[in-house]
Design brief:
By secondary structure, the protein is an all-alpha fold. 81% of the residues lie in helices and 0% in strands.
Length: 121
């Protein structure tokens, strides 16, 4: 789900950048609020009380949101670059977790464990 949100935010950000570059105001009017909503959703999922890493991710997403209010393609490209890097980092974490689960080094997280974890956190 997290990666899907990043994918959506990244796609909308790239589409808005393209709309600015081509002067397509209709597409920009559609993609800009879409990108802003998705970035805001990503921000809402970060608990800054969890330490420096979470705080840094939140600050990067805040910067992306600010860039997504801009009217220059460079601002949008900057946001897209950061979103890409964050998405890649979370994908690497997911891949490593899967590898560790498969090797038995960490327990497999089944649906009931996931629900309990989410309810506590």
């Amino acid at each position: 789900m997290l990666l899907a949100l990043y994918d959506g935010a990244l796609f909308a950000t790239q589409q808005a950048e393209r709309a600015i570059r081509t002067g397509d105001q209709a597409s920009l009017a559609r993609e800009q609020p879409h990108a802003q909503r998705l970035i805001t959703e990503l921000m809402a999922g970060v608990d800054v009380e969890q330490g420096e890493l979470a705080s840094n991710v939140h600050q990067l997403l805040t910067f992306c949101l600010i860039q997504a209010t801009g009217q220059s393609p460079e601002e949008w490209a900057s946001a897209a670059s950061i979103l890409t890097q964050l998405r890649e980092a979370f994908a690497q974490i997911r891949d490593e977790a899967v590898r560790l689960e498969q090797s038995g080094r960490i327990p497999k997280l089944d649906d009931s464990t996931l629900e309990e974890t989410l309810a506590v956190g």
